[in-house]
Amino acid sequence: MGSFRRNAFYWPVWSFAVVFVLLSQRCHGSCSEKELEKREEEANIVLTGTVEEILNMDPVHNTYSCKVRVWRYLKGKTTVNGEVLLDGGNKVMIGGFGDPDICDNQVATGDTRIFFVNLAPEYMWPNHKNELMLNSSLMRITLRNLEEVEHCVEGKNTFLTQHKAVTHVCWRYRDLRVRKLLWW
């Protein structure tokens, strides 16, 4: 009888562990991010900023744009001209959020992130003229992330690998799933 109670107690623990492992494996295969060095090379502008407003929802592509208050340019400040700057020069419009080709690209008002962006190409004008377009996944603002991006911009070697980038996205996905499970 005692072993039955012990097994009944461990059943939820084991089931949670199995669900966690399955979600982790699923996440690893769902989205693979490029290495940080490659992401930095492909972006003409790298900046830190806070999302102030979400607007311009595109119902066809399910993407949206955001007005972002810029705190710091890590790369490409000279590329951002007066036409791109908004509200006195410290805000920009960034589009491409919700793009299924970019792994971590969802934001909410008040989120502060590292943005890898390019100027919108001419074929996207006039809808996205004077707008920056998201080029790759967003990064959370941490001291480590800032240092790694700065090292990439300066051309120094960094130790971030593709595995770590994917793991970052997966842990975020797992945390959201766990919160949902605990909430309900």
From TrEMBL:
Disulphide-bridged cysteine pairs: 31-103
Keyword Glycoprotein among UniProt keywords: no
A Gene Ontology term for the protein's cellular component: plasma membrane
InterPro entries from the UniProt entry: NtA_dom, TIMP-like_OB-fold
Gene3D superfamilies tied to this protein: 2.40.50.120
Keywords from the named record: Disulfide bond, Signal
An annotated GO BP: receptor clustering
Molecular function terms from GO: laminin binding
Signal peptide: 1-29
Residues covered by the NtA domain: 31-163
The name this protein goes by in its record: Agrin
Lineage, opening ranks: Eukaryota, Metazoa, Chordata, Craniata, Vertebrata
